[in-house]
Amino acid sequence: MPRRRIYNPLTELLAAALLVVLVLVVNRWEFSFAVLVLVVLPAVLLSGRIRQISLAILLVAGPLLLSSLLLHGLFYPEGRVILLDFGVARVTQEGLSFAAVMGLRMGVFTGVLLTVAMTLDIPDLLATMTHRRWNRKLVFILGSAVGILPHVALRARQITRAQQARGLVVGREPISRFRALLTVTTPLVIGLLVDASERNHMLQARGFSSSVPRTSYLPDTDTPRQRWARRGMAVAVGAFSVLWLGAGVLP
Amino acid sequence: MIRLESESFAYDDGVPLLTGVSLAVQPGEYVVIAGASGSGKTTLARLLAGLVGADAGSTFRGSITLDGQAVRFRGLPTDPRIDPAAWSAAVAFVAQGAWAQLSMMSATVGEEIAFGPSNRGMAPERLRAAVDDVAAALKLTSLLDRDPRRLSGGQLQRTIIAAAVVQRPRILVLDEPFQGLDEGATADVAAALDALREGGTGVVVCEPMLPRSAPDMARVLALHDGHPVFDGLLVEARGAGLRRYGIGVAGDPPMPGTGAALGGSGDDAGYSGAPPGPTGFPSPGPERIAMTDVCFRHPEDRRTAGAPGDAPAPPGLSGVSLSVRAGEILAVRGANGSGKSTLLQHLNGLHRADSGTVVVGGVPILNQPTGTLATAVGYLFQDTDQQLFERTVLREVSYGPRAGGRPRVEALRRASDALETVGLGPAGEAHPYELGFVQRRLVALASIIATGPAVWALDEPTAGLDEPARTKLAALLALHARGGGAVVMATHDATFAEAVAHRTIWLEGGRIRPAPPAHGR
Amino acid sequence: MSSPLTLAPGHSSERPRRMLLVLGGALILATYLFLVTVQPTEIAGGVGSTASLVSLFGFLGGGALLVGGILPMLTTSSLVVMPLGIALNIAIGQIAGSLGMQIYLDAIGTVLVAVLAGPAAGAATGALSNAIWGLFNPFALPFAAGAALIGLLAGLAAKHGAFRRVYLAPVAGLVVGAIGGLVAAPVAVFMFGAAGTFGTNAIIAVFRSMGDKLLVAATKQGLLSDSLDKIVVFVIVALIVYALPQRAVRQFPFARTYRVLGNRSGRRAPQPTSGIGTPAA
What we know:
The complex is a heterotrimer of chains A (251), B (521) and C (281). Chain A has 251 residues and is an all-alpha fold. In chain A, 74% of the residues lie in helices and 3% in strands. Chain A has helices at residues 9-26, 29-46, 50-74, 93-119, 122-131, 136-165, 174-205, 224-249, and strands at residues 82-85, 90-92. In chain A, helix 2 runs parallel beside helix 4 and helix 6 (136-165) crosses helix 7 (174-205). The longest helix of chain A is centred in the last third of the chain and has 32 residues, at 174-205. Chain B is an alpha/beta fold and 521 residues long. In chain B, helix 5 packs parallel to helix 6 (183-198), helix 11 (393-403) packs parallel to helix 13 (437-451) and helix 12 packs across helix 13. Chain C has one domain (18-264): Orthogonal Bundle (Arp2/3 complex 21 kDa subunit ARPC3). Chain C is 66% helix and 1% strand. Chains in contact: A-B, A-C, B-C. At the A-C interface, helix 1, helix 3, helix 4, helix 6 and helix 7 of A face helix 2, helix 3, helix 4, helix 5 and helix 8 of C. Chain C: Keywords: Membrane, Transmembrane, Transmembrane helix.
């Protein structure tokens, strides 16, 4: 059950993006850690989808963090302080701290963006983009791609079943897997393209090429105040970045 | 009103079709364009919709007159090009395959209906009013907040119609709008069309067969091989002997007497009224299928996935026992969502029973990969197009025997024999997708025949077939049974089941019912 | 003789916004050059924050400019396949990623769109698909410019005949993959410290153990993995498009005009054979 929405999706997306920029600008593990604990954690807890979001974060970031730790923890030729030496591989203090900085950064990225994405109300986002007169082609591509994704996955499953029913057995060897991939993707792509050709006629018949501004069936959930807030946030982060980086460059 | 005069139409290299066809549609009229597969009815419908296909390499010569305004085509590059947006405001078109006509960017039925007008910049208040009006007319008001990708077939079809007519066109053209719908959904869609007609919209419907029920004074234009063979009232068309052009009447049995001929005896024993069990069957052979007390529940994830066309969660099976012997044809009937497909998919391992046993051809279905069972059970899916992937029909049909371990040469030989059997011999080098719907269905059947399994499991085998293909199918089933095979088919087609099957079982909520529900025969 | 039901002759789609295209391309190129030549004090003091910011804004912003320039010139026939390309990228890429493979297979949709609808549609598909995928997997986001480049190059390769013969496809894949790998490496290094799947990281580890700098190691890995990946992707796409029915190919003006699939590209409409109806000159 998604939480009750307070802000417009566009505002939330922008806030997440700016947070990512801030983490990159400040570039200190203390700040990344603070964002993780003070922003991401409460956001996940309040999202109403704690389980799904934490699972997603774990699935996306987990392997990356682990492989990054192995890579830099064991192979960091620039490292001076050697903690353990296995011959080819050496565990160095610098390597570990590099892995930690990068790991925290990736953790924040994943946490911030996934939390926003998984609570994002896509129809609302598309409606807002339409009301704000974004390019209708862009809105169509975004909306249609997100809308068609589950359909593609489902269709791929059904095709796999259909091919099994007529004798497809997937073996372990790469060649067999490659063939299996083809036997499933080919009808998938053909079916989708045949649909697309019909959808092309449909779009033309429904006046998609019209040049007047598109309207939306859904109400506008955006407010003038939020529009100002978005501009304000962007300007503030921009100014802060300039100052911070300027101060870093100057002695 | 619209008037089409076609001198000729040709796909890029094809023979000219629709020579000397003329059709006029008046407000409030109901016109059926009837014809077997390949008769040119879809082409005609698309011409009415303004899709003359010049950009796809087709040549059309003739004229289309819409409200006194004539557009002439001479089949030349300098021909006028129809503005699809302007045309569709007067003539709406609903093509085959509802999925392709969803924008896929609407999360609710309301948004989908509003897609056209909102592209044209209709103000939000008027937009809502327009959507509410059309939804009320088509009885979609309660569905306005539903996800269009998760509707049942009939609901989806009505949504597409609503999205097409929200611009208040004077003519609505539909290409086989009832294909794959069960009785209830068909009635709903027909009622929606009636409502539009009462509002003055002229309705043109393409059908492979003459409809059993249609509005009074419905007109029929029958086509055969791209030429008109009948033009008149529906009541007259039924008696005009159109069967010789491959145009039957929906709901008629495939071939008189087929059912009796199967068992070699003329009595009623094989018909659906007979009690279940091999008693009704003339000469019991060895048992091909044995299901004992099978229970099955769909895993959670598949319940929530919105499969095209079947919105309600499919029921499982509970306590299903079944025996089918060699030489027997069994029909499985029941409403949509009663578990027919689920039962069929237990026969080839696509579903595995939670409890109970399934034995096919003496081999119990346990953990073996589904693919290895393809030589024992041939499965015809409701949606054929999910399984076609080769670039020629011949390669397509030879995939089954090759996957079953036969050498290439033998597989190709079996494939061309099977194509000959279903009557598609000359189409071997064509691309499966360049054939019509009916032929693609026959290609899928030919793949089963080429693979050579003793058991056939067919899911709605007659859906969307024309009269010749339906009769052909009946004959092939009989032939397979006489050769010691067994057939299990899930079907809504009552007359087909009665004519062809030796025995019928009824499913309801995943259980076998001893007798048909009250409205059955 | 114009009527409200027909289109005026010679009607064509809007022109691309060349300014945006040039700016976007220049921004991406400048970003890349900055990252590899200036090579911020990469390793000694951790990763400079300027470098990651530059790669984020340069590549993402460049990608956005490109998309903005391309959108007006897309016809509806290109438009309807782009969502399919994006969905295929994500669906197949997600599977490959979760299997920890050494290759990504996340460009099948991009290359498919590029082959059928042209370089512009391909580039936009690549960029947008990484932007959308970024919603589910933030690590895809900064690679948007690289993905756009892949789409662009694949479309150009198709235009010049790389898909007319099945043996040309892997060659084109090798070249496109190598370029793509070069571009992607700095993003991976400066944004994420070259974190990837276990497969790709194992390759980096080998180079690192030989004493390579992280950027060098990641570039070498990129060259290896991306070339291999694109060879496989191009071959898969070639086999798929050869299996397409003519009807499906014919709907794309790009594929028809440039005979992208050679003799398979849907025959051109033969001229009407009637000698009678010939208009007077």
